Amino acid sequence: MTLAGRAVQAAGARWRRRVADRAADVTGTLAGRALLVLAPHPDDETFGCGALIARARAAGSPVTVAVATDGARSTASARLSPAGLARLRTGELHAACAALGVTDVLQLGFPDGGLTDRRDALTTRLRGLYRDLRPEYVLLPCRQDAHPDHRALHEAALAAGPPRALAYPVWAWFEAPVFPAAAAADRVALWAWAAARSGWLRVPTGPYLAAKREAVSAYLSQTTNLTGEPGWSHLDPRFVAAFLGPHEVFRPA
Ligand SMILES: [Zn+2]
User: Fold this and answer.
1) 2, 83, 139, 153: most buried, per Cβ within 10 A?
2) What is the CATH number of domain 3-252?
3) How far is CA 40 from the centre of its chain?
4) What's the 168 CA to ligand 1 centre distance in angstroms?
């Protein structure tokens, strides 16, 4: 890695520690609550809230994980069709959720990469889920995540009128505080978000980090080069490591 790359990584690690240190612990507030965890793609629920989910399930609290897309477009592959990749990721999702103690897993069937165009239909679907499941807290991706599906799910989840909502960062958690890939027009708002001294919330991963690790390890298609193809797109090990720290963090949405 270049010197500049190493400096960006070090700044990210420092930023994550600082955010977690100054966050308010909401473990007690969330204890015993019925949770609905909304994920754009299979794996976001685990990276963003895996330990929180495992903690809630260990205490007997109801948790439903609803995944908007099947993740069919996470990589190009000559060996695996998009439908094959979707089947694989569905299997990984169920294995990961089992590791976290969750059996209530819903796949909403929206196209991977297509949530922005389907925001109204997604909002309608989520409104129905809130009505049927009656969650006390909805966990949703934060709008600072650079992926358009994450932003679209954030917006739809709020437009659907959640009871109480907490946003969890995925891409933004890894890319802050520098946001090297962000569009210049977004950067000032992202820097302001990363610099906010108040408003951060945290839940320690504690003894539930082991279940989170097990759930992460179910996602081999996302964390390894599964087929060995040079074009197989997968997550950087430093990305994965950023989510296996002592806390998960949230902000009120
Ligand atoms: Zn995602």
Assistant:
1) 153
2) 3.40.50.10320
3) 8
4) 12
